[in-house]
């Protein structure tokens, strides 16, 4: 049984989400101490986190940044309908996806299922290590290494880079990427993909791999080697 950690302080929303996920055999764990959110998540060894933005003590952005210092566990943000810029900020902070309130519980459940399916089953290659332009990407740990530098990618970032490496110097459409990541992506805002690409570029730059992901306007993205 997969475990989901729910960081939501509204008791009605919390119970509705818990009930919906329980029907699909997900174990839902809730916060006990609002000063110890990250510690509780790490201790619970969960498979996914649902994170609200407006919370007691610290907001969801703070807890996501703190969690990302220790773990790359998938995170779905829950934001208000009038907070779309914050939803994009959530992705930039380290979240994998988001839903806006009020939301249909079936949509939230589909997002949870898609991300957990991707984490547990998706594997575009049988190789545990992919080589690219002198760097290596571990498909098991999502660690990108170049020279003596290593950076940890989120599962979403890792899958995007895997797909681009497997199609080196070729244009990969946004539609293809979203289908691979979210099994069809029916509920995915394109901003989620764009922000993940931006975050991936920033991380690649930290290991001296800048300007490798090229945006082909109106077509998609292309991964190039240094002299391409």
Automatic annotation (TrEMBL):
<dbReference type="GO" id="GO:0006355">
    <property type="term" value="P:regulation of DNA-templated transcription"/>
</dbReference>
<protein>
    <submittedName>
        <fullName>DNA-binding response OmpR family regulator</fullName>
    </submittedName>
</protein>
<keyword id="KW-0804">Transcription</keyword>
<dbReference type="Pfam" id="PF00486">
    <property type="entry name" value="Trans_reg_C"/>
</dbReference>
<dbReference type="InterPro" id="IPR036388">
    <property type="entry name" value="WH-like_DNA-bd_sf"/>
</dbReference>
<keyword id="KW-0902">Two-component regulatory system</keyword>
<feature type="DNA-binding region" description="OmpR/PhoB-type">
    <location>
        <begin position="127"/>
        <end position="225"/>
    </location>
</feature>
<dbReference type="InterPro" id="IPR001867">
    <property type="entry name" value="OmpR/PhoB-type_DNA-bd"/>
</dbReference>
<dbReference type="GO" id="GO:0005829">
    <property type="term" value="C:cytosol"/>
</dbReference>
<dbReference type="InterPro" id="IPR011006">
    <property type="entry name" value="CheY-like_superfamily"/>
</dbReference>
<dbReference type="InterPro" id="IPR001789">
    <property type="entry name" value="Sig_transdc_resp-reg_receiver"/>
</dbReference>
<dbReference type="InterPro" id="IPR039420">
    <property type="entry name" value="WalR-like"/>
</dbReference>
<keyword id="KW-0805">Transcription regulation</keyword>
<dbReference type="Pfam" id="PF00072">
    <property type="entry name" value="Response_reg"/>
</dbReference>
<dbReference type="GO" id="GO:0000156">
    <property type="term" value="F:phosphorelay response regulator activity"/>
</dbReference>
<dbReference type="GO" id="GO:0032993">
    <property type="term" value="C:protein-DNA complex"/>
</dbReference>
<keyword id="KW-0238">DNA-binding</keyword>
<feature type="domain" description="OmpR/PhoB-type">
    <location>
        <begin position="127"/>
        <end position="225"/>
    </location>
</feature>
<keyword id="KW-0597">Phosphoprotein</keyword>
<feature type="modified residue" description="4-aspartylphosphate">
    <location>
        <position position="52"/>
    </location>
</feature>
<dbReference type="GO" id="GO:0000976">
    <property type="term" value="F:transcription cis-regulatory region binding"/>
</dbReference>
<feature type="domain" description="Response regulatory">
    <location>
        <begin position="3"/>
        <end position="116"/>
    </location>
</feature>
